[in-house]
Amino acid sequence: MYVIAHLSDPHLDGSEEARSRLRLITSYVRASSVDVVLVSGDLADHGLEAEYAELAGELAFDVPVLVLPGNHDVSAPLRAQLASLVESPGDGHPIHQAREVGIARFVLVDSTVPGAGHGLLSKDSLVWLDGVLREPFDGPVFVAMHHPPLALHHPVMDQWMLEEQDALAEVLTGKSITAILTGHVHNAIVTSFAGHTVRGAPGIRSTVPLPFEPSKATTGSVVDPTAHPGLAFHAHTPGEPLQTIYRYPR
Prior knowledge:
It comes from Kribbella rubisoli. The chain has 250 residues and is of the alpha/beta class. Helices cover 21% and strands 22% of the residues. Strand 2 (36-40), helix 2 (49-58) and strand 3 (65-68) form a beta-alpha-beta unit. It is globular, with a radius of gyration of 17 Å.
């Protein structure tokens, strides 16, 4: 069994609140048996070098760690302070990576638009993604990006959704992909896109209550910072469907 610990949206900002919420999750992962840790974006809240320097210390594991940017991240300071975790040519945007960890290949796609909240993959990014996915690989292949290819049907969050999804669907259709792993919406999400399963990790810093939930679950804000942080474990066993287990450790 090959196990991915999938974390997302820690939004580190130097505060004790953000730090303690992340540590609740990382300590749980360290006590578990996993093969790789994936953090799917919004690593820092303001994209500051100090925030990434703090994150580098918090993401010390005995297994490989993969990170990718979210819309709150800034490419240059992310690359500078997390250089040991990033393998991507260049010194700016985008930060695309193709990484092999054990039996699995991870295609880490930068879905961000500098200075904006929504996601978009440029023509060059789609060409890169298509080329990587056409390379033969004998093992599970995971495509990870911050923005999920879906509409959350939330009046605020959908302002910052992944745009031009049809172009992405054209690239992904028919490719050998085990799952698409995402973050951004601060909720555990299970859906499908272009014939592939999509698994979104819950938010570490907060949760986004949805319009159909009871009003007592909301705080009058887009996010609920009091909701317990969570993570996803994705367990791959050859010949079996991918299993995803969501945990909210106390």
